[in-house]
């Protein structure tokens, strides 16, 4: 494992951070007789936020005291510095090709309990790599080390990789960008995962506007309630005092 602790930028507002905490709790609620240790995260199209969701979910879990590994398995777009400014050029593909050992591709971060593996070097046969014994061995090994392993996969609307990986893990989460994906395409993606015998835990609706978010939760406003209700209570107390003095009409 790399001795360097890479700095991770994590600056979410309270509402967004709570949304990830809720997602973390809901995943735990999905556990029945089998503990969900390995997770695949996918979307229909690029740019829907699956990687951001994967990383922030992992950090949320780590902050809750869990030991978490994020794996970038989008090996069709091998950019070592895609999400983390890592100086370690060895990643997932290097391990599968036998060019590196597991401890050489795992990177630590400044967030206690949160590690990551980059995608590694470019290859011409990504499907062969993720269907190999080396990839299956990696999943088996890391699940013995970490409480949760989050595998960030390519968009399922473009390539089959996500379904192949989903068939090898405990659960799969679908990230859908609000007002961007047609219902038919979302259903097609679900059908493909079902064919792969994936355990679909649910979907994350991402990139919701503030107005839509408020409409979704109705008039219940938790984070602004302190100021709002303190003001109401102050006015009520003031009115009660006025009543006692006979000044309030």
UniProtKB/TrEMBL annotation:
Domain AAA: 39-182
First-tier enzyme category under EC: transferase
One Pfam assignment: AAA_31
Keywords for the protein's UniProt record, in alphabetical order: ATP-binding, Kinase, Nucleotide-binding, Transferase, Tyrosine-protein kinase
UniProt key word S-adenosyl-L-methionine: no
A GO CC term assigned to this protein in UniProt: plasma membrane
Superkingdom of this protein's organism: Bacteria
Protein name per UniProt: non-specific protein-tyrosine kinase
NCBIfam families the UniProt entry points to: eps_fam (TIGR01007)
Gene3D superfamilies found in the cross-reference section: P-loop containing nucleotide triphosphate hydrolases
ATP-binding among keywords: yes
């Amino acid at each position: 494992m790399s001795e360097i602790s890479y700095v991770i930028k994590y600056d979410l507002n309270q509402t967004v951070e709570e949304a990830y905490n809720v997602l973390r709790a809901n995943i735990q609620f999905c556990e029945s007789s089998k503990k969900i240790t390995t997770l695949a995260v996918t979307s229909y199209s690029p740019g829907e936020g699956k990687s951001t969701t994967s990383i922030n979910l992992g950090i949320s879990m780590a902050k809750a005291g869990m030991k978490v590994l994020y794996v970038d398995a989008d090996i069709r777009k091998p950019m070592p510095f895609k999400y983390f400014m890592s100086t370690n050029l060895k990643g997932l593909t290097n391990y599968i090709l036998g060019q590196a050992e597991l401890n050489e591709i795992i990177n630590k971060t400044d967030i206690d309990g949160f590690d990551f593996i980059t995608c590694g070097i470019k290859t011409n046969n990504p499907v062969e790599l993720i269907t190999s014994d080396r990839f299956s061995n990696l999943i088996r090994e890391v699940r013995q080390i970490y409480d949760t392993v989050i595998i960030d996969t390519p968009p399922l609307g473009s390539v089959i990789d996500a379904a192949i990986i989903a068939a090898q893990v405990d659960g799969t989460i679908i990230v859908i960008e609000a007002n961007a994906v047609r219902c038919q395409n979302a259903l097609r993606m679900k059908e493909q995962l079902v064919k792969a015998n994936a355990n679909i835990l649910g979907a994350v609706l991402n990139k919701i506007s503030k107005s839509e978010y408020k409409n979704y939760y109705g008039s219940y406003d938790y984070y602004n309630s302190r100021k709002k209700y303190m003001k109401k209570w102050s006015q009520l107390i003031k009115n009660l005092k006025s009543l006692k003095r006979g000044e309030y009409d």
